[in-house]
Structure formats: structure tokens, C-alpha cells
What does this fold into?
Amino acid sequence: MTHTREMLETYPGTVALDAAILAECIEACFDCDQSCSADAVDDLGEEEVNHLRRCITMCLNCSDVCATTGRILSRQVEFEPVIARAALQACVETCRLCAEECEHHAREMNMEHCRVCAESCRRCERACRDTLSDLAA
Amino acid sequence: MTHTREMLETYPGTVALDAAILAECIEACFDCDQSCSADAVDDLGEEEVNHLRRCITMCLNCSDVCATTGRILSRQVEFEPVIARAALQACVETCRLCAEECEHHAREMNMEHCRVCAESCRRCERACRDTLSDLAA
Amino acid sequence: MTHTREMLETYPGTVALDAAILAECIEACFDCDQSCSADAVDDLGEEEVNHLRRCITMCLNCSDVCATTGRILSRQVEFEPVIARAALQACVETCRLCAEECEHHAREMNMEHCRVCAESCRRCERACRDTLSDLAA
Amino acid sequence: MTHTREMLETYPGTVALDAAILAECIEACFDCDQSCSADAVDDLGEEEVNHLRRCITMCLNCSDVCATTGRILSRQVEFEPVIARAALQACVETCRLCAEECEHHAREMNMEHCRVCAESCRRCERACRDTLSDLAA
It folds into this structure.
């Protein structure tokens, strides 16, 4: 449960984007920050931590990029499309690469935490693409 | 919708705390980061922005403290109670003071975004207190 | 004084980029996070806060983008150029727009804190452009 | 080189604390965020990564706590001592435990990046203690 939608509904101005697309994107960004923060350290707990280096660095980068993108989209007063677009593009790339890495470990090494994290990254990647399309419209 | 609970359920080790209390606290921290990031800038859109200085600074501090606390609690491998406790105590204080300020504006100036933000802060304050109690148990 | 250069010099692997360019960029990112975090709230202390809305939102976004970019560049193991490039491009755009806004207030309203913040943003913009050139080489 | 001192000198109000102590503390917080972000991932590059789990989690927590503390102290308008104190206390504890862990690896495993990171943590711990004393005065 989050207050994201209610915060957008009580915003006193006009939201810069489609409110449903925006709410999903903001929520997905904060959710992906959480999943990646958890997964980076879950990887540390595995015996095969040597094979998880790329996954850990990816998750750390992804958590930071998602946190920043979620905050930029949350700031509706003086919303600047140029900044939102650049952040969303960075978020799409980072979520995509992090998801690929997590999916690999979910498949090959049967790591359930990586499977859940990959779902969270793919949700965020999709939500950022939808928001980019809406920004361009 | 978030993946917080699923990330905890797929954690390969033993979670350091009651899983339901912990999941609620992590989710409340990330939610409060979002609400406060939005509310700080929503305040900027009000004509009476002169009366909202304290509210804006509080919301900015609260968003950062919640983000950090949410991440610390998400990291279960080598979980360190001393650090978790100090972060939770800072989070309780910050959420409490931010909620008081937001509630004031919700009541006196009828600001709906501050009302929702205060709810999010109170939820996070409560969840951090519950987690502190569980840590002490 | 920072430990940025020493951290790069003691990195056990091979740094992905020119070490001097990279150190300056990492340092500029963290410095710009600090300047923008301060300037956003300094603006709140001005009587003309009504005219500073765009400046405040810009500074908040810029502090977050710089924080994330500085961390991504600090992570040398499994450094991923695709992610670094996207973050650097977002950082260039955000620093440029934030600097323009701060320079405007420094010039028109004689705000010294905006003048210093603009310097910090321009330094970071330049350092990110240099790092992007080095990445492309 | 940072703009921290210049940002404090151009602050239009009265700084809540001794300016030299405050500037050193803010700078040490952002520096420690950088050192810990780098060291966490430098550890990943070591063959003995199995022995560095606690060090990595500590560094990740320390980077987040320092980032938040550095920002809270940077925000001088409506500065709230209760929040600053709680953040500083969390920062002292986190820097101390992270430094102890890094010093251990510097000594026992000859890890130079952990030695530099420990210096950065100890500097930040000391600066936060000095700021706490000044707050209490």
C-alpha cells in the first residue's frame, strides 16, 4: 500500500502527465529501489558470491537511478520535461540491464530473490517507457 | 503494489526481525520518502509559500531519512542492530516532527496534500516504533 | 579536502577511464549534490521565494541526479559504460538547466548563494562532458 | 575542492552552528558517502569477497547515512536541532562500526582501499561528534 495516487490526486495544480501512468511509474521506481537494495545484499549471502559481482553492482546502480527518477517525477511544481526525459531514459537502460542480469541468476542458479528483483526491474522499465511515450505525446 | 514482502520471503537466510513488522516498516519508509518528496514541492505551488518554509525543510529531511532507513532495513545479510536502531530512532523523530507540521497546514490552511503526507509520516513513525520494539525484544 | 583520488589510486583493478578526469567528475558530482541541497533551502529563506519556485525544484532534482551519478562512477568493479553514459547525459542536462536558473537569480536578484551554486553546477556539467568524451574514446 | 564553505558564507541568514565545524562536518559526510560507495564495490573485486560481507553491508549503510546527514546539515533555513542531533548520532555509530570493519581488513588483509575508506569514516565520525558538542553548547 502506498500514498502515491493520493498525493497526485491532492496536487493543487495540473499534473504534467497522464495521472495513472505517472502514479504507476513513481510507485514502480520506489519499489525497484527497494527490491534492488535488498537483492544486492541478498546476493552477498550466497555461497557463489564470486559469480554475482555484476549482479550486485547492477542492483546498487539501479536502486540509485530508480530513487532519483521516482523523486523527479514526484515533483510536479515546475516540472521540467527535459530533465524527466533524461532521467527516464537512464532508468530504462539501468532497469533493463539489471533485469537481464537478475533473470540470468534466477534461471541458471535458481535464485528466487533475483527472480523477484527482476520482476520489479521489468515493471519499472515498462512504466518508464510508458511515461516516456506519454511525455512525447 | 510493492515487491517488499516477496523480497523478504525469498531471502535465503533468516530475517533478523518479525517479517510482517519489518515488511510494513520498509514499505512505510519508501512510501514516506515519496510522499515527502511530493509534498515539499506541492507546498511551493501554494500562494502562501511564505508560511510553508518549515514544512518544506521538514519534508526534505524526512524524505532523506526515510530513504536511508528503508534501505538499511532492506539489507538483511550482516544486519547490524546498532545501526538499525540509530536509523529508526532518527526516523521516528523526523517523521513525528514532519507529521506535526503537515497536520498543522492540513487543519489551518486546508491543504489536502499536507493531510495525505501527514498520514504517510504517521504510518512510518508507527512502523518504526514497532520495529524498534521488536529489535529490543 | 576529499578522499576521492586516494580511493581511485588504491582500487585494485584497472580504472575504466582516465583517472584524473574520473576523479574530478566524481568530486564535482558530490560537491554539486551539496551545493544544490543547500541552495534549494537558502532560496526558501528569501523574501522573494515566489520567484524562486523553478530554482528550488531544479536544485532538488540536480542534487539527486548528481548524487546518483557520483555513486555510479565510484563503482569501478563491473563498471557498465551504458549505464554510466545514460547517467552522465542526465547529469549534463540537469546541471545545465539548474546553472541557467541559478545564474539568472545571481544576476537579476544579486543572490550570492545562487552564484556559488551555479559555479558548482557548471563545474559538474563540464566534468560530466569530459567524462562522456573519455567514455566515447 | 568543494564549494561547501562558500555556500555557508553566502547563506543570507545566521548559520545555526559554528561555521568552521559545520563546514568540516558537511564536507566529511559527502566525502564518506563517496569513499564508502567506492569501497563497497572495491571489496567485490577481491578474491576473498567471502570474508568481506560485513564490510560491504557496512559501507552501503554508511554511504546512505552520511548522504542524509550531509544534506540535513546543508539545509540551514528552518534548521531543526532535534532532527540534526538524531541524524548525527546515527552517523557517529555507523561511521564508527564501518571504520572498525575497514581497519580490520586494512590490517589483516592489507587492503589499501579499506585503509583509505576507514580514514574517511573516522574523519566523519570525529566531525559529527564535534558538531554534536557544538549543538549541545
About this structure: Chain D touches chain A at residues 40-41, 44-45, 49-50, 53, 56-57, 60 (CB under 8 Å). Chain D has five helices and no strands. The CA atoms of residues 99 and 119 of chain D lie 7 Å apart.
